[in-house]
Each structure stands twice: as structure tokens, then as C-alpha cells.
Design brief:
alpha+beta; two-stranded antiparallel sheet; 17% helix
């Protein structure tokens, strides 16, 4: 339902607050050349493997959808939703195609985000990254069971 704060309910806010535990940084593993442990949003960081292999790490669930992180800042995480390729109705591309034509300049200025429309694989299945990206920031921690029933 439209509200004054969100006149188009199909559009999501560009900043979402989540439990800070989901954003916690893990430990860097030189053996696996990636971060291990801690928050699911942080662990889904896939910017490097999208560029190199057109794949993503394990996505996280949020509001019924699958999402991956493509950028990690000091206090915010840039994330894109993963859409089943059959449900995506835009032009599909790859990381290589987006950066080859003009060095990625056009992709960096795309209002839907740099990664929008990129085909990626996860768990043997093809997905499309769908933008615009959303920034996830730390919000109030989720209540624990003890607080709910204590």
C-alpha cells in the first residue's frame, strides 16, 4: 500500500537496517583466499568471484529473496538481489561484457547499478543480479529467545 514515505511500494528503500550480527566480519583465510566465519551478509561478498568466474558465493536470505554483497564499506554493505534467470526481463550481460566496451564507465553510471543484469552461477544454477543495489547497515539487534519469553 502506498504511503507518504514510500509512494511506490514496489520500490525498495536504498538503505535497509539489519541485525548487526549479520554484518560481522570474519577471519581472513589465506588457505581459502577469502573470509570465513561470522555474519551471512558479510560472508556473501562476491565482487571478486563475479569478476573472475561469473559466480557468487553463498547468498543470504532477506525478505524472501536471495541476495549477495558486492561492496563492503566501513559501515555499510552494498547488495544486489539474485533473480532466477527465467524471471528477469531485462538485457543479460556478464562482468566481462560490461567492462570491455568502454572500460566499465557506462556500467559505473548505470542508475540500476554496476552489477545489474549480470548473469552469475551459484550452486550450479544460473541467476541474474538485479539492481539497483541496496545498502545494508547495522540496525537494532534481533531479540533473542530469552528476551521474547523471559
Amino acid at each position: 500500500m502506498p504511503t507518504p514515505e514510500n509512494p511506490n511500494p514496489k520500490e525498495q528503500s536504498d538503505v535497509m537496517e539489519v541485525d548487526p550480527e549479520r554484518l560481522r566480519h570474519g577471519t581472513w583465510s589465506h588457505e581459502f583466499n577469502r573470509q570465513i566465519g561470522e555474519g551471512d551478509i558479510c560472508l556473501s561478498y562476491s565482487g571478486d568471484v563475479i569478476a573472475m568466474d561469473n559466480r557468487v558465493r553463498k547468498p543470504f536470505r532477506y525478505r524472501g529473496g536471495l541476495w549477495v554483497t558486492t561492496g563492503v564499506g566501513h559501515d555499510r554493505f552494498k547488495v544486489y538481489q539474485l533473480i532466477d534467470e527465467r524471471l528477469f526481463d531485462g538485457a543479460v550481460t556478464t562482468y566481462g561484457d560490461k567492462v570491455t566496451a568502454d572500460g566499465g564507465d557506462c556500467a559505473r553510471h548505470d542508475p540500476r547499478g554496476f552489477y545489474h543484469g549480470m548473469a552469475v552461477k551459484q550452486g550450479g544454477k544460473q541467476y541474474i543480479l538485479c539492481g539497483p543495489p541496496v545498502a545494508f547497515v547495522a540496525g537494532d539487534p534481533e531479540p533473542t529467545q530469552g528476551l521474547l519469553f523471559g
